[in-house]
Amino acid sequence: MHDLLLLIVGAALVNNVVLARFLGLCSFMGVTTKQETAVGMSLATTFVITVSCMGDWAVEKYLLEPYDVGFLRTVTFILVIAAAVQFTELTVRKVSPTLFKTLGIYLPLITTNCAVLGLALLLVEGKMSFVNATLFGFASALGYSLVMVIFAGLRERIALASVPRLFAGPPVGFITASLLALAFMGFSGMATN
Amino acid sequence: MSQGLDHTATPRGDNTIEAIAKVVAFERGLAVLEPEPTGSCNGCMSAALCGTKTGNTSRLLAKRFTLANSAGLSIGDRVVVGLGGGSLLRASVTAYAIPLLTMLVAMVTIDQMGGGETRTMVGAVAGLGLGIVIARLSATHLANRGDLSPRFIRRAYGPGPGESCHTDLG
User: Fold this and answer.
1) Does residue B163 belong to any structural domain of this protein?
2) Per CB distance under 8 Å, which residues of A are interface residues toward B?
3) Which residues pair with B152 in a beta bridge?
């Protein structure tokens, strides 16, 4: 259990997927203008990352590794991610059409989120067990969500502040992101993963 | 299609998310609305997937919703509809967090009991299935309370003379 906790802390805070690995920057800058949309996107991404990490682990273990076709890894993982997104969309649609109308907008965007593919490739590199791979994906997605929500809150406040004209908009957003990354560097050395 | 509840009041919660929708039909006295793509839609890599670029009919049909026609709307009218920020959060938690948590709890529990890899995988899938069932019950409850339905806020004005577009929500 201690190892699992270290894995979660390491993936979520120390090696944060956005601020330390620089993955998923497109949605980090694009969907963080409002906190509510950031939360919706983050939860959807967390679900898809976790499910696709499970799928990618199974494909690697039972297909790519035994048949020695590692060169097909990237293509196969993209297929698994697209299938995970479709599965999520179908499930939400069947569970509640009203929910689908409210949340459906975020799902297609996740297919092109590089964090999902990046994490799948990282878990293969780490040669993890099924539980570790799933928790690694979940914890990394939690770290992604945390950063998205914090950054959305900061951007909502910055939108109300008087920023010099040359820095208004994305420039001050990037400066804020860099300061956030510096703050997350404080977690370095807490847990290695 | 959601229930045509008479939600003409301002949505609950402070952070209302507003969007423009167009009246496309009437069904049993209820106005059927189709949301208009926002300014940034059609510009991203996924535009072809969500239906805004290709006019994917099934996706656009799936996004239609109904409203009680208490404002005397007619076909072609553009209106501003709103959804409370709290509603979006509740919907997200119901759809994603519940199945995810049941799946992880089932997986870790079986793993800690020394169940082996195959049993852990089966347990995770079973936990996910259980979570989806719970999410379905919770979503039905939210929908019956009208928490997930967009509400009519005001009519949206069209572009003014000489304007090619009108971003003002009304």
Assistant:
1) no
2) 1, 4, 30, 34-37, 39-40, 43-44, 46-47, 50-51, 54, 58, 91-93, 95-105, 108-109, 111-112, 129-131, 134-135, 138
3) B81
Give pairs for B121-125: CB < 8 Å, separation 24+: B121/A54, B121/A58, B121/A130, B124/A54, B124/A134
**For residue B73, what are the domain limits?**
16-155
Distance from C-alpha of B143 to C-alpha of B33, rounded to nearest angstrom: 18
Asked whether residue B164 is domain-assigned, the answer is: no
Q: How many CB atoms lie within 10 A of CB B166?
A: 14
Alpha-carbon span A118 to A75, nearest angstrom:
13
As for how many domains chain B has, the answer is: 1
Query: For the CA atoms of chain B, what is the radius of gyration?
Result: 20
Q: Which of A8, A5, A13, A18 is nearest to A118 (CA)?
A: A18
Supply A113's token pair.
Answer: 């989120």
pLDDT tens-place string over residues B8-42: 444 444 567 777 788 888 887 788 887 776 555 55
Which residues from A are below 8 Å from B34, CB to CB? none
**Whole-angstrom distance, CA of residue A112 vs CA of residue B137:** 31
Task: Output the pLDDT for position B1.
Answer: 41
**Residue A104: its chain B contacts at CB < 8 A?**
62-63
Query: Would you call B13 exposed, middle or buried from its count of C-beta atoms within 10 A (0-12, 13-18, 19+)?
Result: middle
Positive or negative torsion for Cα B130, B136, B142, B144: negative
**SS3 of B109, please?**
helix
Q: Give the pLDDT confidence score for residue B65 in this predicted structure.
A: 75
Interface of B with A in 14-43 (CB under 8 A): 15, 17, 40
- Whether residue B106 is contained in a domain is answered as yes
Which residues of chain B have a CB within 8 Å of the CB of A37? Answer: 17, 88
Q: Which long-range contacts (CB under 8 A, 24 or more apart) does A182-185 make?
A: A184/A13, A184/A16, A184/A19, A184/A20, A184/A147
pLDDT at B13: 46
The answer to whether the Cβ–Cβ distance between A104 and B107 falls below 8 Å is: no
ipTM exceeding 0.95, yes/no: no
Give the closest-approach CA distance of A35 to chain B in angstroms.
9
